[in-house]
Write a structure and sequence with these properties.
This protein is mainly α. It contains four helices and no strands. Helix 1 runs antiparallel to helix 2, helix 1 runs antiparallel to helix 4 and helix 3 runs antiparallel to helix 4.
């Protein structure tokens, strides 16, 4: 993994989480801002998926358990679309909170993937 890219993903996911939770607690229903911002988090996760495929071929293999890394990555890629579907089906203020929780979950998972990739020894 690339540390600066990971930090950008982490910062964006936390910012999206804060915005979505704040708007949800303020009583706002899901809108383009909240749904598309989580879509941007998903787009960066898909880019991370490509990096995770290419990096070992370029000589940057993970030092931790690759199965654990891929389990985190696949789960992180699945979470935002499911939260977006939830928000579009159930258009209440709590759907924004769910979008925020999904963004925070992705942030934690991205940081854990960084740890697995670069800190642990196999």
């Amino acid at each position: 993994m690339i540390l600066p890219f990971t930090l950008v993903q982490l910062a964006l996911a936390c910012l999206v989480g804060l915005v979505c939770v704040a708007l949800g607690l303020a009583g706002r229903k899901p809108n383009d801002l909240t749904v598309l911002s989580l879509g941007l988090v998903e787009l960066l996760l898909l880019a991370q998926l490509v990096v995770a495929i290419v990096a070992p071929l370029a000589g940057n293999a993970p030092t931790g358990n690759p199965v654990e890394f891929w389990a985190y990555l696949i789960a992180a890629v699945v979470i935002p679309p499911l939260a977006i579907v939830w928000a579009l089906v159930e258009r209440t203020r709590w759907s924004n909170v769910v979008l925020g929780a999904a963004a925070f979950a992705v942030a934690v998972m991205v940081w854990r993937m960084e740890q697995i990739w670069s800190v642990q020894l196999a």
